[in-house]
Input
Amino acid sequence: MQPDRDVTGVEIDWRGRTPLAGVTRWRCLERVHGVTAERTQFWPVIAFVHAGAYEVNGPRGRGLVDPLHVAFFRPGEPYQTAHPCGLGDEGSALVLREDLFADLVAARLPEAADDPRRLDAAGPCPTPALRRHLALLRALDAGPLEDGAVEETAIDVADALLAAIAGRRREAPADARRAHRDLAEATKELLGREFRRPLRLESVAARLGVTPAHLCRVFRGSTGSSIHAYLTRLRLRAALEPLAAGAGDLSGLALDLGFSSHSHFTAAFRREFGIPPRAARAGF
Output
């Protein structure tokens, strides 16, 4: 891996690099709404979003990548992005050597090893995998780590993210229709734009042109989550970077994220991450 290679429209800061894996922070440089020109990555990349969201669209389909999802990029594969939730997204990424990534895919998603088009463009980001990734990222921010520690953590996190896709495929109904997936993606886009505001189920359904019952059924079937749980987790993920930066006014942060009170925010944070928000200032 050569860290001096640039990806169009993205600022990349390498935090660590070994013969097998790398860890980066990235920031999107797009300043115009709409679909970008085609671009490519040079290595297999698993991209996390810390703030904002973007839609990725390529030969393997499209998907919204927000703090609850990761994007899977293959080297040399063209893709485009758009920003239905607004500009200014940023995050981090795991960069894997191609033979390592292929081995991980073959173990969890053998159908994608035989046909690369069957690897989803975006997949769920479970909290345990996110915590391990953030711990690695912040350890690298503090100073160099031994290659073995970086590589083993990167492999474990990537494997967990691929396992999440495999699990979702097993649970998905065999007769799932594209219309249902499109409705779920439209719902995620709406939540991604407006998660800081009070949102009522009836008004969300009306804006999407469906009934509340139909929306709830389709969203859970497509994502494995209720709309309320998804919205809460989106707000909680948005709290991680401000907390890591030392946010002092937790009541103000809670209200800014859409929680009704400091106590509501603290209780939800503890349920999701197992620690109170104040403890998260030291990282995971």
